[in-house]
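re: the backbone from monday

yeah here it is again, tokenized this time
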């Protein structure tokens, strides 16, 4: 019980430190308020241009995506892509960033759980970068660009269900980038792959059949389908109960696997002397 208490104390201390560091600078509102509102517009205007002079492309889009509301479809997908993009840069590269600025040795050899440092960074990254999604969705709904038909409680359940997978993903990502000298390259590769396979910026119907099958095994794809169907079509949880169970199952498996991967990284760091304290 004492170890658990210490773990969460260290985690929340790390999360608090990261959040204070972000809010310390006055330009934080640009990434939280301005960018999430302006950036999706570029894709909406692009979609209008590709739809043709008489919107003849809408029927084809509906066939591939299941909806004619391309604005809501594109904006929701891009907001989610922005969220994943930012948490990979913030939470996923936390250990690598700490090594680059010269504090990783101190943190790694401190008498506190090392996993707590990564967990705290993941929590702060999720909190900081998820807030713009909520704000942007509310804004686009108020100006009638997004057709918001969802139950807030349903959206909350979907979001909570994906957290184990996201946190586990960040644990694994942090471990891998700590070993890699070209961590930024890993981020660029992964975010592009997720954008394509998870249908964040395009309907997965445009992908080859074998990629569609792979896409539907990724929890983020199913989460995105749940969110879009809930907001655009007003579908309740009963329509996606199987997806919800799958997301939770894979999420907890990923979370447990991520702890194993992190422990293996700890052992490698000690055996290979990657930290000067060893």
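seq for it, each position gets an aa:
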């Amino acid at each position: 019980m004492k170890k658990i208490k210490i773990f969460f104390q260290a985690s929340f201390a790390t999360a608090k430190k990261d959040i204070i560091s972000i809010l310390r600078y006055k330009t934080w509102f640009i990434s939280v308020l301005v960018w999430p509102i302006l950036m999706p517009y570029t894709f909406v205007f692009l979609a209008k241009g590709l739809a043709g002079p008489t919107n003849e492309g809408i029927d084809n889009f509906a066939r591939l995506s299941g909806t004619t509301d391309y604005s809501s479809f594109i904006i929701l997908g891009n907001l989610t892509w922005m969220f994943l993009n930012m948490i990979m840069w913030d939470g996923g590269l936390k250990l690598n960033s700490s090594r680059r600025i010269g504090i990783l040795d101190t943190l790694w050899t401190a008498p506190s759980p090392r996993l707590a440092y990564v967990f705290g960074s993941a929590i702060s990254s999720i909190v900081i970068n998820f807030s713009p999604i909520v704000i942007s969705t509310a804004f686009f709904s108020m100006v009638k660009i997004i057709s918001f038909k969802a139950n807030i409680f349903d959206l909350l359940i979907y979001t909570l269900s994906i957290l184990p997978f996201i946190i586990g993903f960040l644990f694994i990502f942090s471990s891998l980038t700590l070993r890699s000298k070209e961590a930024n390259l890993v981020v660029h590769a992964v975010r592009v792959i997720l954008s394509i396979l998870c249908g964040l910026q395009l309907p997965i119907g445009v992908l080859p059949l074998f990629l569609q099958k792979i896409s539907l095994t990724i929890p983020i794809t199913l989460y995105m389908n749940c969110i879009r169907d809930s907001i655009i079509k007003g579908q309740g949880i009963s329509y996606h109960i199987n997806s919800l169970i799958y997301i939770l199952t894979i999420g907890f498996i990923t979370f447990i696997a991520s702890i194993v991967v992190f422990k293996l990284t700890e052992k490698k760091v000690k055996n290979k002397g990657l930290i000067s304290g060893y």
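DSSP finds twelve helices and no strands in the chain. Residues 2-272 form one domain.
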